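Query structure, 270 tokens:
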């Protein structure tokens, strides 16, 4: 599945090239190139498939900006522990400004972390905070591995699960939230991206086998704010449409159906 992370890096590389980019990710193209996605290699497919890819790419750009802002707000509030779950090709340790004393943990399986390390060595990238990689499968005892790597659950943490939960069955999502909540002191923050209602039907129904959309299995609950309240989090949900408009990238097409709660989630542990 980590090949999907290379595709996400390619989207971030294209955004970085824009004059009015919502973020700059100088390492993104290096990850994409190393993963076999060159600067100008449009994937094959019909017009409908092209539009779906554009929609997914747009959502990646908006969610990246949304979570960048959330991390900056958490840092401004004094949080100095960051955990990226399913970190993939995330380069926030290298591209964002972090307050002194910030420790950033990247949790993922060994294969993507090893691939990433080789690219980082090639690019001679230098992290702007203390960066700690934790090679563990999220189906295993990742809290134990995180603790062994130096994470302190007694002080606030900001957790990011970006583009992750949609790939997990419902019981695995619940377990992940249980575990995050158990490791979160009061004042912790969390940023999640959830598959919106109906997205699997719209994008996954005729997805190419092995593609990212073909592996989507989990959509957001009807009431994500209430759902997270059950775990002790005070959450807000945001739609892609409202965030895109706030960032100066309004979606020109009208909503196809009545829009429910959004799948961009910010939360605070009380």
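Result returned for the query:
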């Amino acid at each position: 599945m980590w090949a999907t992370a290379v595709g996400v890096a390619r989207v971030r590389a294209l955004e970085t090239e824009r004059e009015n980019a919502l973020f700059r990710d100088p390492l993104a193209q290096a990850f994409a190139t190393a993963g076999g996605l060159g600067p100008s290699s449009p994937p094959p497919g019909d017009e409908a498939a092209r539009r779906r890819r554009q929609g997914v790419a747009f959502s990646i750009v908006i969610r990246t900006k949304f979570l960048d802002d959330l991390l900056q707000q958490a840092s401004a509030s004094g949080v100095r522990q960051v955990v990226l779950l399913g970190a993939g090709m995330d380069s926030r340790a290298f591209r964002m400004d972090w307050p002194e004393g910030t420790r950033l943990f990247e949790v993922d399986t060994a294969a993507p972390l090893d691939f990433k390390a080789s690219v980082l060595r090639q690019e001679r990238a230098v992290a702007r905070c203390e960066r700690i990689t934790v090679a563990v499968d999220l189906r295993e005892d990742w809290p134990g591995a995180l603790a062994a790597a130096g994470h302190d659950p007694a002080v606030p943490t900001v957790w990011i699960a970006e583009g992750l939960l949609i790939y997990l069955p419902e019981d695995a999502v619940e377990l992940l939230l249980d575990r995050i909540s158990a490791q979160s002191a009061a004042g912790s923050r969390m940023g999640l991206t959830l598959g919106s209602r109906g997205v699997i039907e719209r994008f996954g129904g005729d997805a190419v086998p092995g593609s990212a959309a073909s592996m989507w299995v989990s959509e957001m609950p009807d009431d994500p704010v209430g759902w997270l309240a059950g775990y002790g989090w005070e959450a807000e949900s945001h739609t892609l449409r409202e965030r895109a408009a706030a960032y100066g990238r309004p979606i020109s097409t009208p909503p196809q159906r009545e829009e429910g709660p959004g799948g961009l989630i910010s939360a605070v542990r009380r």
